Amino acid sequence: MLRPRPCHWFELVTARDGLAPVLEALARSGAVELQTQERRAAPLVVDGAERPLARFHELARVYRSHWPPTRPAGVTPVSDPAATLHTRLAQLEAWHSEADPLIAAQEQLLAQRQTLADLAQLLQADAALLPQPALLAAAGPFGITARIYAVAPTGRGFDLPADLLRLQVAVPGIARAAGAADAGGARHFMVLLGHRDALSAIDVQAAALPARRVDWPADLGGSAAEAATEVTRRQGRLEEQAADIRTRLAALGEDHDLKGALADIEMVEWLIRHGSELAASDRLIWVTGWTTASDAATLGAPLRAQGLPCVLHCPDPPAGAEPPSVLSNPPWVRAFEAFSRLLGQPGATEADPSALLALVAPLLFGFMFGDVGQGAVLVAAGWLLRQRAPMLAMLIPGGLMAMIFGLLFGSVFAREDLVPALWMHPLHEPVALLAAAVALGAALLLGGLALQALEAAWRHEARRWWACEAGLVLAYAGALAAVFNRQALWLVPVGALWCTAGSVAFSPGSPSGRAADAATGLAQFVEHALQLLVNTVSFARVGAFALAHAGLSLAVTGVAQASGPVGYWVVLLLGNLLILLLEGLVVGIQTTRLLLFEFFVRFLQGNGRVFKPLPPPYVQTTP
Prior knowledge:
The chain contains 21 helices and 12 strands. Strands 2, 3, 4, 9, 10 and 11 form a 6-stranded antiparallel β-sheet that branches. Strands 6-7-5-8 form a 4-stranded antiparallel β-sheet, sandwiched between helices. Strands 1-12 form a two-stranded antiparallel sheet. The chain is flat and about 110 Å long. The protein has 3 domains: 87 residues, Alpha-Beta Plaits, CATH 3.30.70; 118 residues, no CATH class; 272 residues, no CATH class. The two termini are 42 Å apart. The longest helix is centred in the first third of the chain and has 42 residues. The protein is α+β, with helices and mostly antiparallel strands.
């Protein structure tokens, strides 16, 4: 798991008329990234495809919501992309010409159904609140008429002239489903009575408000009860007409094979989109690139399963080609890959520290955020949110480690009187806590130096590492051991001489320049040694943040105890929420910083290239 898996170069030759199913099978395997290294022929081009595809997208913008769910792309092999595109577009045009009148009629029915739904709601109100339907249907004497608006109850009101009579009608008992069908979200209606000229000016205001005009049909008269019955009858008739139109549209889609046309057009567009990565002659296509498959037999398995003819092999990659790399980690480690990718993709000769980070990152986080109760909250939050935001799955091991350190520090929801400290109370022994944090950092840095040595072996530079860098490790180990035994300080000058001699031995300069090489090697030793010491001391912040967390917890419990019996629990709850939000964010940032700038700099440069698999074709027909 420590070493990224490099991809293999593959070359495949197939007939031009069999390209579509071959390329789709490779894409659906998820194991192929296309890359053209050498142009043996012209790029794959589908002549005359630009205008048909533009027309397809023009139709899609208008009719996408009326297209049926499509079958998976590529069910029918596309042997001649150009001919397929023109044939399928002709089918789509034929469907369009026959379906357009039905779609227009369907949209008219939708508008009528909305009006009838508004009227049905309005007529549920108390009949005493409504004018006579005859007055709503037509103008009365002297041009007096009525106009109805569906309005939002909390919306801004109309600025009405004084000569208009306003009736505010709130419809009681409307079912939620009926309200949901109302595009404006309105359950109140405004009925305005006045001269038709004055009412015409109100429409301008309605356009700027959350209001919708409801037109009362001219032939809808009688009493309110009779009008409600007639509205129900008309709703039923409109539903029958809408069902008939849906049936006829479905039949048109079957007659013109609309699903197949959409799938094949999308397939052709997919081929064109990736054609720049292919080389072609009149009869053959060369498909080249990178694969995560271990050999040609594994890569060709899905092609053989479908009986697709091709010639496939995995030769050495072309000179100068940079293979992408793939991180091979179990599912419980993959969330921690985000840390190393902050510096870039680890290359084929670089260590992938994700498996180590699955232990180290929670360890650092838990050290700085040691509390049993707060850690349990983080575990629960990570578990509940892991599907919505996979990165938050890291809260689970971080919270578990915080619970462990909470037991070591004797802290539960900021209180230190519930469980005994198995190790120490941070505020009681701050020096020991800081020393433990520095020791943890030193162990982590030694691990980084070990990964550096491993990478040198992968690059076949182990001799150079042992000649130059091993002296630095010896000096660093001596400086650490000197804390317990001062005689170990002799290892520091020995390590310096080791590095200096190694730099001279591996220097490409002439013998006369050995003194300069020695000075350069010594200067590099001093620089790297100082960096290591600074990095080591920097881990003292782990202990400092653990002290800050304990101090903030003490402050919360102190304020809670001074707040009285009732205020105690309120302050304790709010204080723990503050610690979770504030300290959790700060500790997470500090953990990331320590990993990036103290640990990763020892061995990780991120010079690799991410593997980008060829995406499979798909058809999207819903808005």
